[in-house]
Amino acid sequence: MLKYILKRILTMIPMLIGISIMCYFIIDLAPGDASDMYFNPEIMAAHPEYMEQVREQLGLDKPVYVRYVRWLNELVHGNFGYSYYSKRPVWTELKARIGITVLIASLSIFLEFLIGLAIGILCAKHQNKPPDYIFSTLAVIGHCVPAFWLALVMILVFAIKLKWLPSTGLYTPKLANASLGIRFMDRVKHLVLPVTVTAVSGIGSKARQMRSSYLDVMNQDYIRTARAKGVGERAITWTHTFRNACIPILTMMSGILPALIGGSFILESIFGIPGLGFYGTEAILKHDYPVIMATIMFSSLLVMVGTLIVDILYVLVDPRVKL
Amino acid sequence: MDKDILLNVKELHTGFESPKGFIPAVTGVSFDIARGESVALVGESGCGKSVTAMSVMQLLSVPPARIEAEEIKYNGQDLMKFSAGKMREIRGNEISMIFQEPMTSLNPILKIGFQIAESLRIHRGLNKKEAWDEAVNMLRKVGIPDPEKRVNEYPHQLSGGMRQRVMIAIALSCRPNLLIADEPTTALDVTIQAQILELIADLQEETGMSLLLITHNMGIVAQMADRVMVMYAGQIVESTDVDTIFDNPAHPYTIGLLESIPSADEKVKTLNIIEGTVPSPMFYPKGCRFAPRCPYADEKCAAVQPSLSNIGNGHLCRCHYPKNTKGGGQL
Amino acid sequence: MEDITNSNHPISIDEEEKFFSSNVESFWRMVWNRFKKHKLAIAGLIVLGIMIVICFLAPVIAPFPYEELHLSDVPDGMPLRPGGKYILGTDQLGRDFFTRCLYGGRISLTVGIVSTMIALAIGIPLGCIAGYYGGAADMIIMRVVEFFACVPTFPLLLTLNAVLDNPSIYLVMAIIGIFGWGGVCRQVRAQFLTLKNQEFVQAAEALGYKDRKVIFKHILPNALTPVIIIATMSVAGGILMESSLSYLGLGVQEPIPSWGAMLKAGKSFLRDRPHLCMIPGILILVVSLALNFIGDGLRDALDPRNTRN
Question: What CATH topology corresponds to C107-288?
């Protein structure tokens, strides 16, 4: 197992390099370069020879592959460059933000599995009866709802009209000195809407997938064998059917991960969550290229780590799969 | 002759509700099985043999299935009146069933040992270790080499023949009184077939259990059965002991079946067949269901359904004009 | 169809093939019959059809040009409520909301459909090659697919938009398609792998059919059935991506309307004129639902083993 993980980590490296190359070249297409960071455009226009000198100094006149290798070299030494906008090291700013994105994604995945699978099993066991129709339809709607619109709707309903939950941010500043309990509840309240909105689409798709794979498994011969053995309904549901039905869902998971991370780019903006996605979106809108590079690299890294976790789970759940 | 009757099925009618209407799969089937007896249930695909077995075991999902019977008496109790929980206690414990497709009949993600031990833990209350040890024993008994290793393996690591042995191990782990084997060797190679049948026969002798063997292969019938019941289109058309069925078959369908078995000795240009096809359950003929294909049928056959009557010494036949009635069977 | 089974002359392979392949159309008829049974799928098809027709007829149907301002009607910058001259009200610049919804639909639907077609155009051939020929080609193609799979499309799309300073909508479609072909390719390849070893293919090869013929006439029709379903879902995905993009201010630029951009503009009036946010969102939802229902119906109709009901 450990060998497999190491092997996978090794393959991640060329992937990341490949992604970085792609990003670097894409960004290179943009007009302007790092010197824009330091100088006012008017000055730049007025003193072109000086700008030439500066460019030479910063190594900006070298061909793109040379610049890339330099950049990569810096990266390997932990230097992600400096944000054009804030002038601070990108890594410092990133470090503080990755945690919250991972937290929201993890909570969301947890909810998706908990609720989505439960609804799927419910629908399968009551196939073609009212609960099935109701929940299946809800699941489809959940799956199809545009997340950013749902976010707005929920903010409208819960934050503006009902005033139950805060609309943006991670915490309420004025409670900074309150007790731990109150601060914790405050944090939780701020996370409810983002996590819910992120999870809704996943719940919908998992419920539908679980319903269909549960029904598939229910019709298999080995379930008939289990019944013929006199195994009780509860054991049939959980020990025999459920684990088998989970297998296709894990397959689905690795497809969903990029969307989950990508979705954070928009949802964090709506909810004002200072995470990886928000950072990246802002950087993109401000043309802050070092930050953009770093966020895309990290998003891809998160996706790869997630895929690795899913693949390991796969091996744990299905004994037919060998590493 | 007083037999110790283990299972007595009276007037079993099973059918399925479908969007196109009600499909009668089994009509008026009655039979009994004595302790230690091997009874073969023979017929072609679709004649209702599996449905009969599944009805006895109450393994059909009740909508869309509809099971009606005067009674299904096992050991003096009527299974039709059992609650789901009580029926579960019977299944795998007193009446066990093995199925046709060993490749798909075992749960792929559970260890072999677990699947055998499960029965023991449910029905015999053994704890994990005891059940596991007994599982190893059972594997040894069904002839699987190196059982201590195999018990920890998964079904995909075993061949078809081995998986069927595991099925038998599971079925017999709780020493049932009756084993229902639904075409247990149809999906296996001929050589493996022989081994499996021998295994079943040996275990039967050792434990004294009864066997209901469902098959379409008369060769297996000759090898394994004490008594034979022939089914056609959802009904039992002939029932007698194994010698009589081969020497003196009375029902034209049985005769046709036996004649269509190619002989290894004679050289023939064409194979014997029974003309026509099995009627669809939605459109069973009013009279005898075999009449459209029967070479001896007349207007009475087409109009009136024959009942299962005793043509001598317990030899039952559902025909207006049974053939070969001279000898008759013995019980 | 003449009964060739009893003819006296030896039959060529092509004649024989024509005899048997005349039954292909009945397969699609069978699929259609099964599809018809899904009420939701039919509803989805009707709704989608109506939307496509209305949106693409926008220049004809719309009461106003989409960029026409009516500033006099919105003196204080507050958009008008639905009713009266403007069926669905206006936005804050006095532009008719209904018109903008129609034109926005055109953009969204076009992006969804074209990007899917691009993904199919790349994914199907590559999947065929990877699945049928295997070996080095397969390995290379799958590595590329994996590569694209671990980069989240949306951030990259955003980046490209920022870098290229809001490129044309065609580039947006191309990019969504280029990042989407991986799923199609994987499916086609998986189907090829399964079907390649089935007897009917071995039979065709034994009869000496050329590679290409085997691929196109025999395997591909079977392999495409799951692809149809993926295609419907990916149209929905494309629409969603386009709206997300325009929501963030990238993608299609003013004055061309897009549902996502309209949502963003409506955000400021969330409290007082919620319909400016609600309606575009509901439109996206409805189209997405319609496509999903159609995909579900197709899934059940195309899979003969499906005994779900």
Answer: MetI-like fold (1.10.3720)
Q: Helices A276-286 and C153-163: crossing angle, nearest 10°?
A: 20
CB contact under 8 A, A320 and B108: yes
Determine, for residues A26 and C160 on separate chains, whether the beta-carbon distance falls below 8 Å: yes
Inform me whether the pLDDT recorded for C6 exceeds 70.
no
**Of A229, A231, A243, which is closest to B109 when you measure between CB atoms?**
A243
Asked if B55 is an interface residue toward chain A (Cβ–Cβ < 8 A), one would say no
- Asked if A160 and C156 come within 8 Å (Cβ–Cβ), the reply is no
Contact A113, A173 (CB under 8 A): no
- Please state, in angstroms and rounded to a whole number, the distance separating the CA atoms of residues A3 and C219: 38
A-facing residues of C in 279-308 (CB < 8 A) are 280-281, 284-285, 288-289, 292-293, 296, 307-308
For residue range B168-218, what is the model confidence (pLDDT) as tens digits? 999 999 999 999 999 998 888 888 888 889 999 998 999 899 999 999 888
By percentage, how much of chain C surpasses pLDDT 90?
8
Nearest neighbour of A228 by CB, restricted to B97, B107, B123: B97
Residue of A nearest to B154 (CA): A319
CB < 8 Å to A127, chain B: none
Nearest Cα residue in chain C from A22: C156
CB spacing of A262 vs C152 below 8 angstroms = yes
Q: Which of A39-43, A231-235, C115-119 has the lowest mean pLDDT?
A: A39-43
Q: Encoding tokens for residue A309?
A: 């976790």
User: Is B110–A239 a contact, with Cβ atoms under 8 angstroms apart?
Assistant: yes
Class of residue C25 by CB neighbours under 10 A (exposed 0-12, middle 13-18, buried 19+): exposed
Picking from B252, B138, B151, B250, the residue whose alpha carbon sits closest to that of residue B203 is B138
Predicted pLDDT at C305? 54
Taking the CA of residue A185 and the nearest CA in chain C, the distance in Å comes to 27
Q: How far apart are CA C296 and CA C91, in angstroms?
A: 36
Chain C: list its partners (3+ Cβ pairs within 8 Å).
Answer: A
pLDDT digit string, tens, across residues B266-304: 777 777 778 777 788 877 888 888 888 888 888 888 888
Which strands make up the sheet holding B316-317, listed edge to edge? Answer: B95-98, B178-182, B210-215, B38-42, B227-232, B235-241, B316-317, B309-310
Please report, for chain C, the start and end positions of each structural domain, with discontinuous segments joined by +.
Answer: 107-288
Q: What is the pLDDT of residue A12?
A: 85
Residue-averaged pLDDT of chain A? 83
**Quick one: tokens of A208?**
């539908």
pLDDT number for residue B239: 92
CB atoms within 10 A of CB C309: 9
A219, A229, A231, A315: best to mutate for the B interface, most B CBs within 10 A: A229
Q: What is the ipTM of this complex?
A: 0.85
CA Rg value for chain C? 24
- Ordered domains of chain A (ranges, CATH): 90-317 (1.10.3720.10)
Number of alpha carbons in the 13 Å side-chain half-sphere of residue C250 = 28
Q: Model's pTM, two decimal places?
A: 0.81
